[in-house]
Amino acid sequence: MSTDARRTDGIKAVIFDLDGTLLDTEKLLFRFWREAAAAYGFEMTGEQALTLRSLTHRLVQPLFTEWFGEKCGYKLLRAERMRRMSEYIKENGLEVKPGAAELLGLLGTHGYLRAVATATDVERASEMLKKAGLYVCFDRIICASMVEWGKPKPDIYLYAAEQLGLAPDECMAVEDSPNGVISAGTAGCFTVMVPDLTQPDDTVMPYISAVCGSLSGIAELLNINTKGGQTQ
After folding, report:
1. 9 included as an active-site residue
2. Which long-range contacts does 3-6 make (Cβ < 8 Å, 24+ apart)?
3. Is there a catalytic annotation at residue 19?
């Protein structure tokens, strides 16, 4: 784990991204975006699929036009990706990131507010969190559809902090992707990257307050003793 000199004593809430951070679904999005594109006769590169992580729909559609042309049918491709991914999860179940349930329990025990800030719509986010057994852990579920701009713009984190009754710098944001990191960092949150499919690079490091190898490192950042106490 690496961190900068900013302290976490003033943190009152932890806001989590969903896909790739709490749920091990980013690998599925990567796979099924590419499969959906192929089903319609387009070749999506791995780099292109990675670009889509947490990206607001308002920016995705122009990217598809740039990559595949005016007649690519973004909405059809997205519907196909969602269908394939839903069928996979129905058949194989939903994987929760290691340590997610334990961390959420610790945060609740120590009085931290807990929220989700995701590009996923509220119906799907709620459904997935219920399947994962995590839904009851959260005080707020904030989705990109609730704000003018999703990630990488800061709107969703500014709105999440507002809904929690806090300033952004009283919130820790936990993200796995560059778009999410930029969103949270620009909003002024203490931004922790827990890498999933890619490691942080020079483009995102200015927005990152800390990097943890797994969710278990969040408790250490907050000086929470995992045996039940709080370190001094």
Report:
1. no
2. 3/209, 3/210, 3/211, 3/221, 4/208, 4/209, 4/210, 6/190, 6/209
3. yes
